[in-house]
Amino acid sequence: MAETSLLEAGASAASTAAALENLQVEASCSVCLEYLKEPVIIECGHNFCKACITRWWEDLERDFPCPVCRKTSRYRSLRPNRQLGSMVEIAKQLQAVKRKIRDESLCSEHHEALSLFCYEEQEAVCLICAISHTHRAHTVVPLDDATQEYKEKLQKCLEPLEQKLQEITCCKASEEKKPGELKVEQAACCFHCLAGYLPVSESSILYLICWFVITHYI
User: Fold this and answer.
1) What is the mean pLDDT of residues 75-89?
2) Of the N and C termini of the chain, which has fewer Cβ atoms inside 10 Å?
3) Which of 144, 111, 145 lies closest to 128, judged by CA?
4) Is the pTM of this model over 0.70?
5) 37-51, 92-106, 190-204 — most confident range
């Protein structure tokens, strides 16, 4: 079955892309322009790969300048930034998910853009698929139209979902709910709710959840 991501259409996709791009910028070293490796923070507050800033200051004995703001410090002050290191790992994973979704946006049979949606098969199809024997008698609409419809269904679904998540979060230890179990139940609640309203692949749902994490918790 052909798969696609309805999340790449409309305003929600723009927000997702912007959030991911911002995260990638924060997770990149301004010296090597790659993802940060062993990120360290210097006196002015900017972050760099430990190896990059060490090489940048290699021939200096005093007045160590920041490669970004040029502010100098008297000492080689390098403090590990473990929280940023975790962000780098998240950015890498999201980039991999985004790449996978982009690859899924082409018809696996005809290698054409998946620009239409078949209601009977509940899948995105290309123009060639739409006029084929398989889908000829089916109801096929532009993917943007289907996106809007399912977006509205998702909005209606989110209100009870948020209430349910609040109830789960408020569970106490006396109810024999461990933190790990709460997270599993929350994730399952999110997944089943979204899966019931969006005709997309699991990776697309993961992308939506990742977007929610970025925009609400980072």
Assistant:
1) 88
2) N
3) 111
4) no
5) 37-51
